Amino acid sequence: MTPLIREIAFDTETTGLNPNEGDRVIEMGAVEMINHIPTGKTFHTRINPRRSVSEATIRITGLTDDHLKDAPFFEEEHVVGAFLEFVGDATLVAHNAGFDRGFLNMELALCGRDPVPDDRWLDTAALARKKYPGAPASLDALCKRFDISLESRTLHGALLDSQLLASVYLELLGGRARAFSFDTPETELAAGERRTARQRPQKLPSLLTESEKAAHAAFIETLGPDCLWKQA
Questions:
Q1: Does the pLDDT value for residue 193 go beyond 50?
Q2: Sheet of strand 37-46: strand arrangement
Q3: Which has the closest alpha carbon to 109: 88, 87, 80, 143?
Q4: pLDDT band, residue 196 (cuts 50/70/90)
Q5: What sign has the CA pseudo-torsion 107, 109, 112, 118?
Q6: Residue 217 pLDDT class (50, 70, 90 cuts)
Q7: For the whole prediction, is pTM greater than 0.70?
Q8: Measured between alpha carbons, how far is 30 from 11 in angstroms, rounded to an integer?
Q9: What local confidence, expressed as pLDDT, does residue 152 receive?
Q10: pLDDT tens digit string along 108-160?
Q11: How many angstroms separate the CA atoms of 8 and 84, rounded?
Q12: Are 122 and 96 in contact (CB under 8 A)?
């Protein structure tokens, strides 16, 4: 039996760009995936950053100080505790993961929690650059490449971006056909890649007797070179 792979598509919105200069997280969104497919389970919260939101962040997210003044603080148990429980030991999938990792681990450190180690992060931006060298690798560009609708995305939001990211991640791994994989223990690849419905399935065992096989082979030889059996 193929083991279950649990991953979390994750995104943050922040007051600015640099956690080392006092910028803080103002919103987190997360989407659970099992074997790379969203399960419908999500986590979302806004956070009071104890500082003003930059004008650039307001333009991007629409979130102002007034929107966040009554939001909980990151260190409250129903924020950080609930988030860590939701994530568990899953891999965090993020776009430009270094950014989200830096902010999340900064917030965890400020409230005495252990960081999420580097080996538990997967960067979809790096994955996209490797798969499509030289092509735009922003989340918007990848949504357009894969025909993922952006109609509901007039502003950036952590949960919506996590949901879009989950769809992009599925496409980067091989597309929607992965949801209809026909893996067996004998056909799984050593690198952990999964054979999808887009690939040629294994041949079914023949139900013919040996004499019937010989007669069938002789019949095929009488057909032209373009017959279906000679192209298999």
A1: no
A2: 37-46, 25-34, 6-14, 91-94, 121-123
A3: 80
A4: very low
A5: positive
A6: low
A7: yes
A8: 7
A9: 80
A10: 999 999 999 999 999 999 999 999 999 999 999 999 999 999 988 888 999 99
A11: 11
A12: no
Q: How far is residue 12's CA from residue 102's CA, in Å, rounded to a whole number?
A: 11
Going by C-alpha positions, the residue among 138, 163, 155 that lies closest to residue 64 is: 155
Q: Which of the residues are catalytic?
A: 156
Least confident of 73-77, 91-95, 147-151, 190-194: 190-194
Contacts 24+ apart (CB under 8 A), 40-48: 41/86, 42/159, 42/162, 42/163, 43/82, 43/83, 43/86, 43/87, 44/158, 44/159, 45/71, 45/72, 45/79, 45/82, 45/83, 46/71, 47/71, 47/72, 47/73, 47/74, 47/79, 48/72, 48/73
CA separation for the pair 17, 118 (Å, rounded): 20
CA distance 110 to 81: 14
